[in-house]
């Protein structure tokens, strides 16, 4: 008995691309983990009729989640529209207004504000549909669980941190708890490969007759890595095991993760007990930034050098002037010198050296935009490559960090 | 006569949150810039019936754009479903297959592959609906313009770079050109403020009776900055001018951009003719990475130091051991020393020093997680602050770079 859900993300700023939605994907994953089938994420602007038509579109579902539109401003109208759609009147909850006001008052210290304006905002946020379950505010906006003749509608706030915290409270609140309990359980497994082209995985899946299996298999190329995500009910566990065995047999050599770990997490595990430092030019700090994304990275990241100018390459990383003059700043020789420089300047076990042409300018016929020289080294070993990466400036910079992490993995596996 | 459009983003990997969609917002902005009203972005997985219901949902629109599902694998089924929905048969285009094959062959050098598997992929991608206009592949997937009894459906590939390049070709291709020409023109203006709380802008908009104006106004808090985006037809230009004047009168002191420029672009303009360097701890390279996001940044960014360990703070940035011992690594004194160290080590005009506690560990009652000490200095002037930023590790790191850029702006404006 599958439970079907749809997600409505509100906000003209999201619809128009001014900000990128994080809530739809997050809620979708949260629902999937609880065995709920999500069919659609619908993004709508702050227009009453478009929000209403989105609710109509999902009216044959068991559950609809909304995010956003609960703030103090006039364009925040989700609660009103959902209430009207469900046929419930809005009533003022005085005790709720006082709780919201207490939160707003705590924020007073951070921002300049006019008391009257803030009070009006809190009052607006304290109107709730008759009969709805109120989810306590995490920021200033309360959430709602609104029953209708069709789906249960869970109304959640827009700021991702508020939404995520409130979701944890919502799942144990009636009537959402009952709906979620009626869903079965779905397993999800993710295998990650690098490098592996999409047509190759397509051919492999045809060979394994994957279409005929009781599994939902998705392949996707993400930051240059190929990901095979499979969702299935517990009864299909043996079918999944056979699929995974077939994939391992054919592509085990490029399989780098079978437990959901990203390459970043794989690297963090391999780096335990060692130290690393960077010297980067075209990535301008993003490589060090990526290595320090994970909590606990201070155990192995000592630091890094961002050597954007040639002078900095020499002064900070000790790359000889003559080497740059002989080979150019973007050259394998300079990458090698940078990784050695990172090691010696920071007294690290492992050094990363990156120099390349991120574009859009600076390319030449011999070294077009996208050419990046990478060196990952220890005192006794090294992985070195010159790659040509596709895409624009941001793509080249981001993809460089992915390629470098995979080179680092190769080095660490044989160390 | 307004043209209404909807966008359908396909892909189980997008719906499930494995990858984050960039195409919906991008297409939405591209359409808005051409005066088209976008009502919804609908994200669907790779299920035939869900894609079909999304097309039904948008069937009263003038235009529907789809992204994704054009690849060589079996779960790529957008072209088939759209063709069936529009009542057009799929036919093989032999010449198109050869053009696709030529592209695939060029990719051969980058990736290992089996010829047979790749050939099968190219053949699949060369099936097109009868009567559809074919948009030449940018990667390997051709796009399509499919007429139906309802909307015109523009079928575009999933990789953002391919989609964006193909869109430029599509807009001058019949019949899409005709649909776009029938749309009017909408103007968009964006004002950005920092710092300004949302309830305050809400109160101001009520004061200015903004609801009654013939303008579509959206306010949104983005990376800590408040953005007021307004869309209007040319006939409402004077209403907009009055609104903008009212906002300037009340909040001109915190208005930092009125021409669509982000703080990053504002800073890039102000930095012309000067040089800058960074020394950062908790942001781990993200500050330097952000300063070098923009093309041309090599004119003013000399480089930076990522000083994650205390040893690196001393060895690279010249922060005295005794200073760290006396005040702690996260202290205004160390931030000051870091910005001075960045300046002197890289011989830059301006130095940035950042040290803080990004979390989740490392906090204390006096210095909780989110405490960040920032110093931006020249030889003769400085902006210095200790801030407490909300959110998780990634939020604290990202918000730190935003706050720092605004401090940098203040310093540059009086220099």
Automatic annotation (TrEMBL), chains A, B:
CDD domains linked to this entry: cinA
Transmembrane segments: none
Domain MoaB/Mog: start-end pairs: 6-177
SUPFAM superfamilies: CinA-like, Molybdenum cofactor biosynthesis proteins
Pfam families according to UniProt: CinA, MoCF_biosynth
Domain of life where this protein originates: Bacteria
HAMAP family: CinA_B (MF_00226_B)
Family listed: Belongs to the CinA family.
Name recorded for this polypeptide: CinA-like protein
């Amino acid at each position: 008995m599958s439970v079907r859900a749809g997600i409505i993300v509100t906000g003209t700023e999201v619809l128009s691309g001014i900000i990128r939605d994080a809530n739809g994907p997050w809620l979708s994953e949260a629902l999937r983990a609880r065995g709920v089938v999500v069919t659609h994420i619908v993004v709508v602007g702050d227009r009453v009729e478009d929000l209403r038509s989105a609710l109509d579109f999902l009216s044959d579902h068991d559950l609809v989640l909304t995010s956003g539109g609960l703030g103090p401003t006039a364009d925040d109208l989700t609660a009103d529209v959902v209430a009207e759609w469900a046929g419930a009147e809005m009533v003022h909850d005085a005790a709720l207004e006082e709780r919201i006001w207490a939160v707003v008052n705590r924020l007073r210290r951070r921002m300049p504000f006019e008391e009257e304006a803030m009070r009006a905002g809190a009052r607006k946020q304290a109107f709730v549909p008759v009969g709805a379950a109120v989810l306590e505010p995490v920021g200033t906006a309360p959430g709602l669980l609104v029953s209708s003749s069709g789906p249960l509608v869970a109304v959640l706030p827009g700021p991702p941190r508020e939404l995520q915290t409130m979701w944890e409270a919502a799942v144990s609140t009636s009537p959402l708890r009952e709906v979620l309990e009626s869903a079965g359980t779905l397993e999800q497994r993710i295998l990650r490969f690098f490098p592996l082209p999409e047509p190759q995985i397509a051919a492999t899946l045809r060979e394994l007759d994957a279409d005929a299996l009781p599994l939902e298999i998705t392949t996707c190329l993400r930051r240059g890595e190929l990901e095979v995500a499979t969702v299935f009910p517990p009864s299909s566990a043996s079918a999944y095991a056979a699929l995974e065995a077939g994939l391992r047999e054919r592509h085990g050599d490029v399989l780098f993760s079978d437990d959901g770990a990203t390459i970043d997490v794989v690297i963090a595990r391999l780096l335990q007990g060692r130290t690393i430092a960077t010297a980067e030019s075209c990535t301008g700090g993003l490589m060090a930034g990526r290595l320090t994304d994970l909590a606990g990275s201070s155990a192995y990241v000592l630091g890094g050098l961002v050597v954007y100018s040639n002078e900095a390459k020499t002064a900070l990383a000790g790359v000889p002037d003559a080497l740059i003059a002989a080979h150019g700043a973007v050259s394998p020789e300079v990458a090698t010198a940078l990784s050695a420089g990172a090691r010696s300047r920071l007294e690290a076990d492992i050094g990363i050296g990156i120099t390349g042409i991120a574009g859009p300018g600076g390319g030449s016929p011999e070294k077009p935009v996208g050419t990046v020289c990478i060196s990952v080294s220890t005192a006794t070993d090294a992985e070195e490559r010159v790659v040509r990466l596709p895409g624009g400036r941001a793509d080249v910079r981001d993809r460089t960090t992915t390629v470098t992490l995979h080179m680092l993995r190769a080095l660490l596996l044989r160390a």
